[in-house]
Specification:
The protein is an alpha+beta fold and 96 residues long. The protein has two helices and five strands, in the order βββββαα. The longest helix has 25 residues, at 43-67.
């Protein structure tokens, strides 16, 4: 799965689409009651982050698999692995 950030134009705001299917994954813009598109400075950053999410999730899973269970570690590494496992679960929708 590869998602791409599509930058805003005069006709639409930033959005993210599936690079293979071309299906829109997420729109990142606001429309006023009068129909005007409002661009926000952070929309481009958010779209880039959402576009990178599948790769980031895969990388985080690889780190957790390579390191094993947090119980095998101490200190900051243990805290990081616990946070990574929670982030993976949130991303996969298994916890909120």
């Amino acid at each position: 799965m590869k998602w791409e950030h599509v930058k805003a134009t005069e006709c639409h705001g930033d959005y993210v689409e599936d690079a293979v299917t071309g299906i829109t994954v997420c729109d990142l813009y606001l429309i006023t009651p009068t129909g005007r598109i409002v661009h926000h400075a952070d929309h481009e950053k958010h779209a880039a982050l959402i576009g990178a999410a599948p790769g980031m999730l895969a990388a985080l899973k690889m780190v957790c698999e390579a390191c094993g269970a947090p119980d095998h570690w101490n200190g900051e590494t243990r805290k990081f692995l616990i946070a990574a496992e929670i982030s993976i679960a949130e991303a996969e929708g298994t916890i909120k």
